[in-house]
């Protein structure tokens, strides 16, 4: 695509207050309220939403998914033709790569997520490998590029939103071209009529309003790969790509909130703490809880399991709440040896900040 020099370049990280641009983004997108962690499957209206550009208006009758590039049989499939293929449903947790960005200092000037850019859904559609097998992959195939219908300008580059998967990832059995969410049609904000869902990867890979799949004979170097979603300590370095979700645990805040600060107040009685934890790097093996800002940790009990290695697990902890002020924390660990850090690891884009959640709580008589 021709690069048109339009728009404005992205500003550098800042220690200043939120900008009007950031507030505008925050008003367009929305987070999952942390009390919704009590649902094993996130209700559609509470699942987090990030729209890079605009929500396109799509007529189902005119929709076609094209498959081209390094394939033997290029395809143009209607939604009914996709629905006629063998169906696959995957319970999968999806988290934005920028979740936690607003808690970094200095922070990237972008969508100012705190901790709530996450949700778990039951995504139903056709397996991506089924469609690629229909098209017939050539031996030269390297990447599968997914292109959405949403178009915009980012850092002076005019583009349609595109992400790519290495062929080995694209052929995983659980990668799905989804046309349903939680038993109903895919809502417009979640990519109607079709989106790519890649379990275990951060949300930017799950291309919405999917229009085409192009198989390439070399690695994809479009904007969302080469210039965005990369870990950098300096804006001028090449960096490394953001891929799978790091482990994270979140606590459903107990008690009742102060309206403005959201600080919690609970009664001096035994309190059942609960939350969810997940990782795209490996199988979740444990969650620990602290009431003294991460000095002493105690094991939580893992609870409900959706039967999918790609969905979060519930956890509970019985806390003996005595009068005083506390800072509750929780941290997750996976079987690949990854554990949440107490303090964030900074990078220019504010990606993958999985530092432990801190919840101030006052226990009253």
Question: What keywords describe this structure?
Answer:
Immunoglobulin-like; mainly beta; about 10% helix; about 375 residues; 2 domains
In words, what does this structure look like?
This protein has five helices and 22 strands. It starts with 19 loop residues before the first helix and ends with a strand. The longest helix has 9 residues, at 20-28. The chain has helices at residues 20-28, 79-83, 128-135, 167-170, 223-226, and strands at residues 65-69, 75-77, 87-95, 118-127, 143-154, 157-166, 176-181, 184-185, 195-197, 210-216, 230-231, 240-241, 248-251, 256-257, 264-267, 270-278, 284-290, 298-299, 301-305, 313-320, 324-334, 357-364. The protein is globular and about 70 Å long. The protein has two domains: 20-241, Sulfite Oxidase, Chain A, domain 2; 248-364, Immunoglobulin-like (Sandwich), CATH 2.60.40.650. Helices cover 8% and strands 36% of the residues. It has 365 residues and is mostly beta strands. The model is unreliable at 1-5 (pLDDT under 50). The protein has a six-stranded mixed sheet, with no helix packed on it.
Q: CATH superfamily of the largest domain, called what?
A: Oxidoreductase, molybdopterin-binding domain
**Sheet with the most strands: spatial strand order:** 14-15-22-21-17-18
Radius of gyration, CA atoms, in whole angstroms: 21 Å
Q: Give the helix level as a range of percent.
A: under 10%
Topology of helices and strands:
Elements: H1 20-28, E1 65-69, E2 75-77, H2 79-83, E3 87-95, E4 118-127, H3 128-135, E5 143-154, E6 157-166, H4 167-170, E7 176-181, E8 184-185, E9 195-197, E10 210-216, H5 223-226, E11 230-231, E12 240-241, E13 248-251, E14 256-257, E15 264-267, E16 270-278, E17 284-290, E18 298-299, E19 301-305, E20 313-320, E21 324-334, E22 357-364
């Amino acid at each position: 695509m021709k690069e048109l020099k339009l728009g404005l370049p992205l500003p550098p990280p800042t220690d200043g207050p939120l900008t009007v641009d950031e507030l505008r983004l925050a008003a367009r997108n929305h987070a999952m309220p942390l009390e919704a962690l009590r649902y094993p499957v996130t209700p559609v209206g509470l699942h987090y939403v990030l729209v890079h550009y605009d929500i396109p208006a799509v007529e189902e009758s005119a929709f076609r998914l094209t498959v081209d590039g390094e394939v033997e049989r290029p395809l143009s499939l209607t939604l009914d033709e996709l629905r006629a293929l063998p169906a696959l449903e995957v319970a999968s947790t999806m988290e934005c790569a920028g979740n936690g960005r607003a808690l970094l200092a200095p922070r990237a000037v972008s969508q100012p997520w705190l901790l709530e850019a996450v949700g778990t859904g039951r995504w139903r559609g056709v397996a991506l490998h089924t469609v690629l097998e229909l098209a017939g992959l050539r031996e030269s195939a390297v990447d599968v590029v997914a292109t959405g219908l949403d178009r915009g300008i980012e850092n002076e580059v005019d583009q349609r939103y595109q992400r790519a998967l290495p062929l080995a990832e694209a052929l995983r059995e659980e990668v799905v071209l989804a046309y349903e969410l939680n038993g109903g049609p895919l809502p417009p904000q979640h990519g109607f009529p079709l989106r790519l869902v890649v379990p275990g990867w951060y949300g930017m890979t799950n291309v919405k309003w999917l229009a085409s799949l192009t198989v390439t004979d070399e690695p994809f170097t479009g904007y969302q790969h080469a210039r965005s979603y990369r870990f950098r300590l300096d804006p001028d370095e090449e960096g490394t790509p953001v891929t799978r979700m790091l482990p994270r645990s979140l606590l459903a805040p107990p008690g009742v909130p102060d309206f403005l600060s959201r600080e919690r107040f609970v009664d001096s009685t035994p309190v059942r703490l609960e939350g969810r934890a997940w990782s795209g790097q490996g199988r979740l093996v444990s969650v620990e809880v602290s009431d003294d800002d991460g000095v002493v940790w105690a094991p939580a009990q893992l609870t409900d399991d959706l039967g999918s290695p790609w969905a979060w697990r519930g956890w509970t902890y019985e806390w003996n709440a005595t009068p005083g002020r506390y800072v509750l924390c929780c941290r997750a660990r996976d079987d690949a040896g990854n554990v949440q850090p107490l303090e964030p690891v900074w990078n220019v884009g504010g990606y993958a900040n999985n530092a432990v959640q801190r919840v101030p709580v006052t226990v009253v008589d």
